[in-house]
Amino acid sequence: MTSPVTGTTPESFRVASPVDLPTLPDEPLTAALERAATDHPQRVAVDFLGATTTYAELADEVARAAGALLALGVRPGDRVAIALPNSTQHLVAFQAVLRVGGVVVGHNPTYSAGELAHQLADSGASVALVWTKAVPAVLEARDRTDLRAVVAVDLAHDLPRASRWALRLPVARARRTAAAMRGPVPADVPLWHRLVHAATPLPADHPRPSSSDVALLQYTGGTTGTPKAAVLTHRNLVANAVQGHAWTRHERGREVVYGVLPFFHAFGLTLCLSYAVRIAATLVVLPSFDPALVLAAQRRRPGTFLPAVPPMLDRLVTSAEEAGVSLRSFTHAISGAMALPAATARRWEEATDGLVVEGYGMTETSPVALGNPFDASRRPGALGLPFPGTDVRVVSQQDVTADVARGEPGELLVRGPQVFAGYWGRPDETAEQLLPDGWLRTGDVVRVDDDGFVVLVDRIKEMIVTGGFKVYPSQVEDHLRTMPGIRDVAVVGVPGGDLGESVVAAVVLDEGQDVDLAAVRDWCARHLARYAVPRRLVVLPDLPRSQVGKVLRRVVRDQVLALPA
């Protein structure tokens, strides 16, 4: 173990990891599956709603899928779009594209044709593997892209045989389930499972990608502007999986990981598609987060490790209490994408008798960069300490070459083997984010406390400047969440005349409650600087959130601006 905080003077310091990084293997991400299939061939690799696939079977399926991709003309460096919900075939397609040297481009399968068109055209994808319900949107976007092949993936093919048979029953429930899982596919669009079944498996000696090859284009920035693709290499993704293994100290071949996060998101992709395979875990796959589905799986195959976001943890505990289902098999959970409230952490740990810790990262860091230790030193609400092999600095927002004093807010810089190679086709934006000496500008304002833990203050792009003063929305939100009657809140800045910006609180109220601006201002004035007190209150029925539950402040701001002053 090393000291969390290092440096030569109290005024200048850097934060180091408490865990040493093992030697990184010089291998592609796909090597982990080959190892798991050799060491644990009969272990269940995937459980999808009760349909199981062993590691030996998964490796065979991936080899056949890779052969199908070769037949479609996919060659090293070609971009292959994957627009699928969580499923066995999502994992198969992901591994197969990488095995032939292709580059995975992940997409949200519920995106509109316009959203998909931008990303497909930007990446230059030549082949798209698409959920049947998303096929119409991809076909509508196709003329604006370089796609030469669109392949439909039927999720029902991954179900247990009895469930597939039940979908054909002429009853209302079966029809509703089938409609939710499947969509109509034109006759000229090939079906993935038929191509894979007919394919010649990829020979074992087929050339493998190198660790320096690009593995993934992951789109990010959709909440702050036009999405752009972060370029992640095999080495980046392998490094983050190795870092995670050193952090959790999970034993290979023993864990049961629950895949409730979307696999097309960086958080779900790394923890479920990469890390779970590296530790030869059983991955319990849910097509979407549904507490009833999770609890049904828990009865069938109890989980041990849950990557999630705070609202998921709260809903699972509530549902488990109501249904009388034990969650005590879960020894570890990692929470990300937003702050982990102390109350949520306490509820989860009381329900499971296990640990939940907060992690921090971004798509550009593959994605995990910091985490709380899995021991008594964890701090709910803090981002944590650097992952193994990760360097962290906190610098002036005006001068990124100058470190700030401990305890002072500044921009977080990160450097490590998981830091991305840049943005696809965007050299200017890459130069803005990646400094010449390898430091990544995160755009997050943090401080480092005396114990070395990094604590989020806010995002630079969402900081409000009013009357020359800086207001961090998260600080105002944290205080307002303690006010009786307020269930949720987002604080944004809107044009405020001579002030520059005006602070607005958009709140969701508890049922039957009524809160006015005067009460909000009085509550905030007790603990916040005068300039940080909201000047306007907007009551909303709900707050817009991303796929992983993060509040979209930009969307809230647009909603506020659309309302009468």
From TrEMBL:
<feature type="domain" description="AMP-dependent synthetase/ligase">
    <location>
        <begin position="33"/>
        <end position="424"/>
    </location>
</feature>
<feature type="region of interest" description="Disordered">
    <location>
        <begin position="1"/>
        <end position="21"/>
    </location>
</feature>
<dbReference type="InterPro" id="IPR050237">
    <property type="entry name" value="ATP-dep_AMP-bd_enzyme"/>
</dbReference>
<dbReference type="InterPro" id="IPR020845">
    <property type="entry name" value="AMP-binding_CS"/>
</dbReference>
<dbReference type="InterPro" id="IPR045851">
    <property type="entry name" value="AMP-bd_C_sf"/>
</dbReference>
<protein>
    <submittedName>
        <fullName>AMP-binding protein</fullName>
    </submittedName>
</protein>
<dbReference type="InterPro" id="IPR000873">
    <property type="entry name" value="AMP-dep_synth/lig_dom"/>
</dbReference>
<dbReference type="InterPro" id="IPR042099">
    <property type="entry name" value="ANL_N_sf"/>
</dbReference>
<dbReference type="Pfam" id="PF00501">
    <property type="entry name" value="AMP-binding"/>
</dbReference>
<feature type="domain" description="AMP-binding enzyme C-terminal">
    <location>
        <begin position="476"/>
        <end position="550"/>
    </location>
</feature>
<feature type="compositionally biased region" description="Polar residues">
    <location>
        <begin position="1"/>
        <end position="11"/>
    </location>
</feature>
<dbReference type="InterPro" id="IPR025110">
    <property type="entry name" value="AMP-bd_C"/>
</dbReference>
<dbReference type="Pfam" id="PF13193">
    <property type="entry name" value="AMP-binding_C"/>
</dbReference>
